[in-house]
Amino acid sequence: MIAESVRAIWCRELQRDDISVDDNFFALGGQSVIMATIQRHFIEELGVEVPMDQMFLNPTVASISAYIESLGAVTQQ
């Protein structure tokens, strides 16, 4: 499931284990450097490139997961 993979990446990079699918990345302390690292993990782990603007427009696990799923070409590695 994409949402669980995205959540795991966020938990790891934000150094938290209590992130829900509706938590806002920025409210959790996220900032652009962490976002760039997450963007790289999306490429490495999910095989999908997520543009930075989409990460700003979709600041929750649920919304960015829906965006990733809409791309239709996700391959979990």
UniProtKB/TrEMBL annotation:
Coiled-coil features, chain-numbered ranges: none
Pfam families for this protein: PP-binding
Carrier domain residues: 1-72
InterPro entries: ACP-like_sf, PP-bd_ACP
Highest rank taxon of the organism: Bacteria
Protein name per Swiss-Prot or TrEMBL: Acyl carrier protein
Species: Streptomyces sp. R39
